[in-house]
């Protein structure tokens, strides 16, 4: 029995080690790539360390690549999207799960259908609509689709958690004289912090890395987000592979940092409703 447990433990460690290597190696390779010269990169020695760390690659990416402008645009767009997604999905989830009304299940089904709609199928209709209302080539033209495509998943997560909250909590608050708005903002919102953090992380990662919508609806260089700006930088600096690698590292750094700091919140938020139920 002890030998069997030891073999299982060793097998688990070997499997986790393989997974860790396969996940971390591309990041390590990209980091080494960003410090190399073109001759070292083209030599084909993928595992070799740089003979000399070329920090100029990062200075070129930072200055010539308009990194601050692009990351500033991404912060604005992602921040507004997160705020609208949390507020709207929170209110919708509360209305669907806590109110007794005829069309609650139908509305929930509509939002679930929204999860299955691919972004690519909406680009042409959105292009026509945004052109008619004159918001093409503005941040609003990408924030609106981002919010629309983020809300269905957020509603799915939040509504699953809200169903596990006992209704006696709200009934007690109503007896004490609290209205529906006070109950929502003072009781429901603090309780739903774990799934809200999950929604924030998932939405942040998907919006921060989104490229298709930004490339379709934005044309001004001053409005480009980081992934769109990265593609422009790659097109301009095709001869400087090290600078391209440096820009890729700088582009991945914010989302990687955000994820590693709050990654434990994803698991807690996903299972919170199941644990409470």
Structure, described:
With 277 residues, the protein is an all-alpha fold. It has 2 domains: 21-54, no CATH class; 65-276, MetI-like (MetI-like fold), CATH 1.10.3720.10. The chain contains 13 helices and no strands. The protein has helices spanning 2-33, 38-42, 56-63, 67-98, 104-116, 123-132, 140-162, 168-175, 180-191, 193-208, 212-217, 226-236, 241-276. Helix 3 (56-63) crosses helix 13 and helix 4 (67-98) runs antiparallel to helix 12 (226-236). The longest helix is centred in the C-terminal third of the chain and has 36 residues, at 241-276. The relative contact order is 0.15. Mean pLDDT is 83; it is low at 273-277.
List the helices and strands and how they pair.
Elements: H1 2-33, H2 38-42, H3 56-63, H4 67-98, H5 104-116, H6 123-132, H7 140-162, H8 168-175, H9 180-191, H10 193-208, H11 212-217, H12 226-236, H13 241-276
Helix pairs in contact: 1-13, 3-13, 4-7, 4-10, 4-12, 5-7, 7-10, 7-13, 10-13, 12-13
Question: Which key phrases capture this entry?
Answer:
globular, MetI-like fold, 277 residues, mainly alpha
What is the fold named in CATH at topology level of the largest domain?
A: MetI-like fold
**Helix count, DSSP H or I runs of 4 or more residues:** 13
Give the DSSP E fraction (strand runs of 2 or more residues).
Answer: under 5%
Average pLDDT for all residues = 83
Number of domains: 2
- What is the β-strand count? 0
Structural class: mainly alpha
Order of helices and strands: HHHHHHHHHHHHH
What's the CATH first level of the largest domain? Answer: Mainly Alpha
Largest sheet: none
Q: Quick one: CATH superfamily of the largest domain?
A: MetI-like
CA distance, first residue to last residue = 36 Å
Radius of gyration: 24 Å
């Amino acid at each position: 029995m002890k030998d069997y447990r030891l073999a299982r433990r060793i097998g688990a460690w070997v499997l986790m080690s393989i997974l860790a290597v396969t996940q971390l190696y591309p990041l390590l390779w990209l980091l080494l790539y960003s410090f190399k010269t073109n001759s070292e990169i083209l030599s084909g020695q993928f595992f070799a360390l740089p003979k000399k760390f070329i920090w100029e690659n990062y200075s070129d990416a930072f200055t010539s690549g308009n990194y601050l402008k692009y990351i500033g645009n991404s912060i604005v767009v992602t921040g507004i999207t997160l705020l609208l997604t949390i507020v709207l999905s929170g209110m919708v989830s509360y209305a669907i799960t806590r109110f007794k009304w005829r069309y609650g299940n139908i509305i929930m089904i509509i939002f679930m259908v929204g999860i299955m709609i691919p972004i690519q199928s909406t680009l042409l209709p959105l292009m026509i609509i945004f052109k008619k209302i004159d918001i093409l080539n503005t941040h609003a033209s990408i924030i609106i689709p981002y919010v629309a495509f983020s809300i269905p998943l957020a509603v799915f997560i939040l509504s699953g958690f809200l169903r596990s909250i006992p209704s006696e909590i709200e009934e007690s608050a109503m007896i004490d004289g609290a209205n529906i708005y006070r109950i929502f903002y003072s009781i429901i919102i603090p309780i739903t912090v774990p799934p809200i953090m999950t929604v924030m992380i998932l939405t942040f990662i998907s919006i921060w890395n989104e490229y298709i919508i930004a490339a379709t609806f934005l044309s001004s260089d001053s409005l480009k987000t980081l992934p769109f700006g990265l593609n422009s930088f790659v097109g301009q600096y095709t001869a400087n592979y090290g600078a391209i690698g440096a820009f890729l590292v700088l582009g991945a750094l914010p989302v990687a940092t955000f994820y590693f700091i709050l990654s434990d919140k994803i698991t807690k938020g996903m299972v919170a409703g199941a644990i409470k139920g």
